[in-house]
Structures are given as structure tokens and as C-alpha cells.
Write a sequence for this structure.
């Protein structure tokens, strides 16, 4: 185009003049993609109810976010997909047969109480999905601990049963094998059952540089070591006849919500420390609290409580890590 | 040669669309406007008046100040006016407006310098009007004359060209390798340097191979070598390049000479090689013209003082209405407010973008992802710096080493919430300086 016009009114701004294509929406989308393998296992193990629960949680979470923004005349943020992710994570943290109205209450707690009342995305103190799970767990104890058995294990009159950790805490015939735990053919919250599927998702996120492996590695590593030391000292319980100390440590890593919590919940950017040292403290802290609750507490499972407690400590951890980093850099110079 | 340990960096898109475009020499425009402020330091005073006739290479601007560089006419013609205009940085600059006669007659005083010793070398560099052509525009005769001259031993040629789009240094290495090697030999001879590295990103393998061949052909393998860098931003930043090549860390405020290094841009050094043969001062510049608003992206050599508008017309004109025009690359370049601004010595690119590319996504809430911390070459913590800036906390800003920021913009680039973190650091530095003045 031959154009003799001169342009005297151009846009001026500070450099840089290009930005990465990764934004909040894409980040959330990649996390959602990473949850797909686990979702597939959930559908296989728990059937249609897994799809229904997830769909309801996603719709409810997005609705609450949309309605809040509308009501408060704030900029609409449903497009960033963070509410979708929260919905999926709430569903993954509940039994698949949970009455849907209870799930909707969970979504309300997560989006309105935990997230929006504190100022929306980036401002919440604690993980919305984890907090929602704990609120439901305490308020609707019966429904939240009625665990459907895998479709493959159900008989005509037996459709629910204890989770592997429930068996360990309260007794039962025998523990499921670590292989079943790894693959996911056990009872539990709908999205937590398959360690393999969750690890695939985690590897994907690390590969895509969405999460750092520090928190998951420290969390899982601490659970493993804690269990190893504990069972070496206390001996293997009766229910786990035939299990060695090592098998029991592995059992604790594979059972319950450790994988889901370590990979997808404790790594939530907003509610986890930013600096590497802080991430180590977060991971180890989650692991220790999880095991304290599992072995010495009243509940068979402690992952969600451990994450919630560590979430609350994040500002302190961040502050500590920052001070250490400043000290280190004051010594080290520019590099 | 290449190294295994690296500073943090970002993978910025390369967009080296013009890497295969051989440089074209632009016709002399009808009018040039030569700025008297083309370098860091004191502006020059015009040495010509309205009505004077000038020739190519004739001195038209000079200053008594130590930190300054003389300015020469890029054309032959008649001085039409001495104008003042608002400069890109908001201040005012003086322009010598010359109507060209198209003959491009060379000034009688242009002849190859006779240099016998170090002082003669520095004098010749000074008279050539050379400034750092990589972007900083620092007068070169000062850089090549370090206080600790006896301690410097290594020459580093910055040919990283890590800015997206720009290929002018790349083309220079392919088209004028001999000038570059000549320039390096001159520097090494007069400053007394034993070894030279040419740092080049590995997305320019043809340049690396070509230079290796030229060095071998001329039997200089013992004195100089190419150094392969990762093609990641900002490998061409002085302090990053020094670390990548020598493994030495360099704080802000430290000069390469303090580490025994003379570091200069590849085009700057190639100019030295050419100047010592011809004596023609710095009057024209090779630059990459690209961006989605430019009809035919090219590499162009244009007389200094040509308007951006004329350069773009030489490249087929605007393909779409330009919304933003940059002098330099998209990571650190300066946005111009008008397209009649003249080309200056340290221009290495003109990029014109339509509104589709010029308007960046809006800022959203920080999600605490820590990517900005992970990419900073000097391990600064932009999120924390931004917090400290919000509180105008000079003490905390200093503790967080805001003064080490070189404003490379990696943090702003990588932020998924599109926060202008690099710019905030710039403001943070001002807060620290102000507190220091109290």
C-alpha cells in the first residue's frame, strides 16, 4: 500500500512491546488437561455419577463466580477458567455419589466465601476447593464418608465400603494391594483414586513448566519417609499382614488424597509459597501434618487438613524464604 | 566454544523474518534531519548554519565535553534549517535539516586515519563519531580507553542479537565479515588484548560457520574464536554475555574493563575495521525494517537522519495503519510518537505494528506463579519488588537489589497477568535514588 500519510499520533508505552502467549486462562486450561487422565479413571471406576458430579460442580462454581461479578458490578472473570478448575477439584475431592445439593453448597463456599469475599483470583488466603471439601466433610459427615465401591467390586447389596485408609484406621478384612491403589481400583473421593493417572497429569504440568516439582516431591517424599520410620519403629499392623515396612510406606503414598493433594492442590500458585525454599517448607509441612493426622489423629485421612493449615502459614513461609534469599543474595552478588 | 552454565532467561519468539534478506542500500532521501543528540553524554552544537553547503562525512556537530561524540553529515546538500523538536524521551533535541542534492559528494577531509600508537587509535575512534551501536550509544572512544588499560586482556564481541525481529548484526556478519575481523585485529593490537570471543546465538549457525571459516582462512584461530550462545533472551545483555562467556559475574555499575574485558557490539567493531580503511565517519546505518504494518520487511542501509517514514516507504510503505513504531527491538526498543523521527546512529531496527500487534492484553490479577522470579537473569524478585514499590519502601527495594535490574523486560514478558514488572523496577530505582538524595 503506497501511503504518503505521516503518522504523528502513535501509541507510546514502555518496553517490552511483546508478551508471552501464556496467560492465566491458558495456565488453568493446562491444569484442567492434566486432570483428564484421572477423570477418565474416575468414570471407569465410579461410572456416570463421576461425570454428573463434575458437571454440577463446574456449572455451580462458574455460576457463582459469574453471579458475584454481575452483582458486584465487577469485571467478569469466568473466562480465566479458574472457577472451572475449582469446580473440577471440588468434585474430585468428594465421593462420587454425593447428593448434588451438597456439592453445590461446597461450590458456594469455595467461590463466594473463600475466593470472592477475599477479593477474587489471586487474593484468596486458602485453597478454595480444599476448604470447600473440609467444610462439607465437617457439615455433612455421613454423606461425605459414604464411599461408593468401584463398580467392578460392587455386589447386588453391597455398593459402598471403607476407603483403604479407613480400613487401616478402623479395621477390616484386608488392605487392597498397592497395585490396585496405584491403578485406582479402590474406593475414595472420585478423583483421588488413581495414583498413576494423577502422576501422568503431574508429569505433564512439570514438563509444561506450569508447576515446579518441588512441592509434590517434598510432600510425597515426606509422607513416604515418615511412614517408613513409623512402621519400622511401631511394626506393621495386623490388618496389613504380609506387608513389609516399605510396602506400608508405599501404601501411604498411594492411598487417599496424597497424589491429588500434592500435585494439584498444594501447588496452587495463589496459596503456595513462591520461592524454592518456601516450596520445600510447604511440601514437607504438608507431608508431616498428613501423617500426624493419619497415624495419631481422629480421622483416617489428613491431606486436606494439612494443605489448609499450610495455606494459612504461607505468608509466614514466604516472608521467611524472602529473608533467607535476601541474606543469600547480599553475600552472593549479582548471580 | 560454548558453555554449560547459564543465567536465567526467557524463550522469546525469534521472528527473524529478515535473516535471509541481503541488505539493500537505500536511495538518498530529499531531506535528512540529523540529530545533535545521538549518544549518551553532552549533545553536540551545530557547526554549520542555514545556507551552508555540506558534503558526505563533513563535521556538522561537535562538543567540548568529554562524554560526547562528533556528528557528520550523511549527505551532500544544503543546510535548510536548524530545528528543535521533542525527542523520543520527552526532552528537546536539535536537528540539522539538510536538503540533499543527490550527488553524495564526499568531503575532502575524508581519508583513512594514520594511526601509529594507542593515543592515535583513541583519537581516530573519537573523530569517527563512533558510539556503541548495540543500543546504548555510549561514545566508543571512552569505552576503548579504560582507566586500567594494562589490565584488560580479552575482547568480547557482542553478536548475540537476542532481540526478536532484528537481523542487522546477523547480515553484517555474513556480508562484512572481513571488516569485523579487521576491526577486532585493530582493537587487539592497539589496546593490547590477547584473545577475542565473538558471542553469537545458535539461531545464526550460518554466521558462526562463516566467521569460523574467515578466521581460519586468515590464520587467526589462536587469537579469536566464535562462542555459541543459547538463542534465548537476553543473552546479548552486557552483564549476561560476560557471565556466559567468562563465567564471571558482573554487578550493575561494574565495567567489563574491571574484569579485564573490552566488550563491544559487532557492528561497532566492524565499523572500526571499515573506518581504518576508508576514513568515512559514521554516517549511515544498517537496520532491520519489519513488523506486520510494513509491506516488505528488509534489511536496509540508510543515511543517518533519514526519517522513519522514508525508510518504511523504501520498504514498500505501510501494509496496514501503524499503531506503534519501535526504534530497536520489541523487548527493549523505544516506541516513537511519530514516524517523522530521524534515524540515529544506534538504530538497529525499525518495527511498525498495526493495532492488532501493538495493543497488548490488559493486566489481570497476579496469581503468584513466580515466573518473573524464575526468569530474572540476576535472580531479582519482581513480584516482591512491585510490592515494595507500591509501599514506596526504598529500604526494602534496595534490599531486594532493585539497582541490579537492567530493565531487560523478561519479567514483564513472561508474566501471565501481563503486569509491567520491568517498568515498575524502573520506577523503583527512582524511589531508591530519591531516598538517597534526601
Amino acid at each position: 500500500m503506497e501511503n504518503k500519510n505521516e503518522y504523528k499520533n502513535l501509541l507510546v508505552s514502555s518496553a517490552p512491546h511483546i508478551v508471552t502467549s501464556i496467560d492465566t486462562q491458558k495456565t488453568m486450561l493446562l491444569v484442567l488437561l492434566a486432570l483428564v487422565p484421572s477423570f477418565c479413571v474416575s468414570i471407569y471406576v465410579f461410572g456416570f455419577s463421576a461425570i454428573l458430579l463434575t458437571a454440577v460442580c463446574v456449572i455451580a462454581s462458574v455460576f457463582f463466580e459469574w453471579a458475584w461479578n454481575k452483582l458486584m458490578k465487577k469485571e467478569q472473570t469466568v473466562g480465566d477458567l479458574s472457577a472451572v478448575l475449582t469446580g473440577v477439584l471440588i468434585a474430585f475431592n468428594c465421593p462420587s455419589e454425593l447428593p448434588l445439593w451438597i456439592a453445590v453448597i461446597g461450590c458456594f463456599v469455595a467461590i463466594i466465601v473463600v475466593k470472592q469475599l477475599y477479593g477474587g483470583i489471586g487474593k484468596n488466603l486458602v485453597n478454595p476447593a480444599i476448604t470447600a471439601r473440609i467444610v462439607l466433610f465437617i457439615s455433612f459427615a455421613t454423606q461425605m464418608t459414604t464411599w461408593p465401591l468401584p463398580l467392578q467390586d460392587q455386589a447386588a447389596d453391597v455398593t459402598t465400603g471403607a476407603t483403604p485408609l479407613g480400613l487401616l484406621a478402623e479395621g477390616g478384612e484386608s488392605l487392597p494391594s498397592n497395585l490396585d491403589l496405584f491403578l485406582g481400583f479402590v474406593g475414595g473421593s472420585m478423583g483421588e483414586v488413581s495414583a498413576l493417572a494423577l502422576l501422568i497429569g503431574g508429569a505433564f504440568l512439570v514438563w509444561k513448566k506450569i508447576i515446579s516439582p518441588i512441592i509434590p516431591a517434598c510432600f510425597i517424599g515426606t509422607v513416604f519417609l515418615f511412614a517408613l520410620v513409623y512402621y519400622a519403629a511401631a511394626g506393621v499392623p495386623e490388618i496389613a499382614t504380609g506387608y513389609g515396612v516399605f510396602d506400608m510406606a508405599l501404601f501411604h503414598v498411594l492411598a487417599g488424597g496424597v497424589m491429588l493433594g500434592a500435585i494439584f492442590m498444594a501447588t496452587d500458585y495463589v496459596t503456595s509459597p513462591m520461592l524454592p525454599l518456601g516450596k520445600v517448607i510447604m511440601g514437607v509441612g504438608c507431608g508431616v501434618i498428613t501423617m500426624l493426622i493419619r497415624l495419631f489423629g481422629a480421622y483416617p485421612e489428613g491431606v486436606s487438613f494439612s494443605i489448609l493449615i499450610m495455606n494459612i502459614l504461607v505468608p509466614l513461609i514466604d516472608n521467611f524464604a524472602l529473608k533467607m534469599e535476601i541474606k543469600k543474595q547480599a553475600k552472593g552478588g549479582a548471580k | 566454544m560454548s558453555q554449560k552454565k547459564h543465567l536465567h532467561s526467557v524463550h522469546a519468539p525469534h521472528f527473524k523474518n529478515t535473516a535471509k534478506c541481503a541488505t539493500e542500500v537505500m536511495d538518498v532521501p530529499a531531506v535528512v534531519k540529523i540529530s545533535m543528540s545521538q549518544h549518551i553524554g553532552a549533545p553536540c552544537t551545530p557547526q554549520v548554519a542555514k545556507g551552508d553547503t555540506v558534503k558526505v562525512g563533513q563535521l556538522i556537530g561537535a562538543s567540548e565535553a568529554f562524554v560526547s561524540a562528533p556528528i557528520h553529515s550523511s549527505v551532500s546538500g544544503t543546510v535548510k534549517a536548524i530545528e528543535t523538536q521533542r525527542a523520543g524521551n520527552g526532552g528537546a533535541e536539535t536537528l540539522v535539516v539538510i536538503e540533499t542534492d543527490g550527488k553524495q559528494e564526499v568531503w575532502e577531509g575524508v581519508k583513512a586515519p594514520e594511526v601509529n600508537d594507542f593515543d592515535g587509535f583513541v583519537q581516530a575512534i573519537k573523530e569517527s563519531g563512533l558510539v556503541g551501536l548495540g543500543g546504548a550509544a555510549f561514545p566508543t572512544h571512552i569505552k576503548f580507553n579504560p582507566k586500567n588499560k594494562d589490565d584488560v586482556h580479552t575482547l568480547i564481541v557482542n553478536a548475540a542479537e537476542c532481540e526478536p525481529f532484528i537481523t542487522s548484526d546477523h547480515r553484517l556478519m555474513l556480508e562484512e565479515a572481513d571488516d569485523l575481523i579487521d576491526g577486532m585485529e585493530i582493537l587487539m593490537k592497539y589496546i593490547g588484548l590477547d584473545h577475542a570471543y565473538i558471542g553469537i546465538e545458535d539461531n545464526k549457525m550460518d554466521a558462526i560457520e562463516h566467521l569460523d571459516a574467515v578466521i581460519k582462512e586468515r590464520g587467526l584461530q589462536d587469537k579469536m574464536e566464535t562462542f555459541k550462545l543459547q538463542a534465548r533472551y537476553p543473552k546479548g545483555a552486557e552483564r549476561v554475555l560476560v557471565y556466559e562467556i567468562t563465567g564471571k559475574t558482573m554487578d550493575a555499575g561494574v565495567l567489563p574493563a574491571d574484569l579485564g574485558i573490552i566488550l563491544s557490539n559487532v557492528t561497532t567493531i566492524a565499523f572500526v575495521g571499515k573506518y581504518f580503511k576508508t576514513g568515512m565517519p559514521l554516517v549511515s546505518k544498517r537496520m532491520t525494517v519489519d513488523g506486520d504494518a510494513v509491506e516488505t520487511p528488509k534489511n536496509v542501509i540508510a543515511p543517518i537522519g533519514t526519517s522513519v517514514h522514508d525508510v518504511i516507504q523504501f520498504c514498500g510503505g505501510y501494509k496496514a495503519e501503524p499503531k506503534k513504531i519501535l526504534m530497536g527491538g520489541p523487548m527493549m526498543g523505544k516506541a516513537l510518537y511519530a514516524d517523522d523521527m530521524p534515524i540515529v546512529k544506534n538504530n538497529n531496527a525499525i518495527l511498525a505494528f498495526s493495532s492488532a500487534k501493538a495493543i497488548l492484553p490488559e493486566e489481570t490479577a497476579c496469581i503468584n506463579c513466580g515466573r518473573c522470579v524464575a526468569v530474572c537473569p540476576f535472580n531479582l524478585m519482581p513480584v516482591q519488588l512491585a510490592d515494595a514499590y507500591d509501599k514506596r519502601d526504598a529500604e526494602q527495594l534496595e534490599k531486594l537489589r532493585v539497582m541490579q535490574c537492567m530493565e531487560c523486560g523478561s519479567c514483564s514478558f513472561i508474566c501471565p497477568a501481563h503486569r509491567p514488572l520491568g517498568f515498575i523496577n524502573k520506577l523503583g530505582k527512582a524511589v531508591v535514588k530519591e531516598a538517597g538524595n534526601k
